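Quick look at the format.
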Amino acid sequence: MEAYQQKGTTLGTLTGVAFVIAGIEPSAYVQTIILACLGAIISFGTTLLLKALFKRWKKDKP
């Protein structure tokens, strides 16, 4: 368990340092994560909708 915590701490520290060096604000990082999740949800929903529409279209087509 300790190795996992140390790996997570190291990753968090390195990510934080990279953001500071790159000049990325934490709020921009959070905004990017939220927009990426929203995009993934919309993409998944669109795929399900198109799949249902094509299935219905094929069923109605003789």
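Next, a different chain entirely:
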Amino acid sequence: MQLKWLDDFKAAIIEKDFERIEQLLSQMPDFKSINELKTGVALINEAKKLLIAEQKVLRENMEKIKKSREFLKNESRHSFSESC
């Protein structure tokens, strides 16, 4: 079970499948050896880095959308005032 979980977790990280990562974390087995435990910890740390990077990208995209909305809002006001 532990080796399958580790393989599935590796695949989820490679595929950037955040839902699968979350699901696997909720089903994390009790590791039987120190090596499996170390591998599990390393993979969880990689998943954490991946999630932090994705969060940063999402934050940047949200900021771009916010700026675009403000620009369009100001442009429509400007266009409306010129047409009057």
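The first helix runs from residue 2 to 14.

See the schema section for token definitions.
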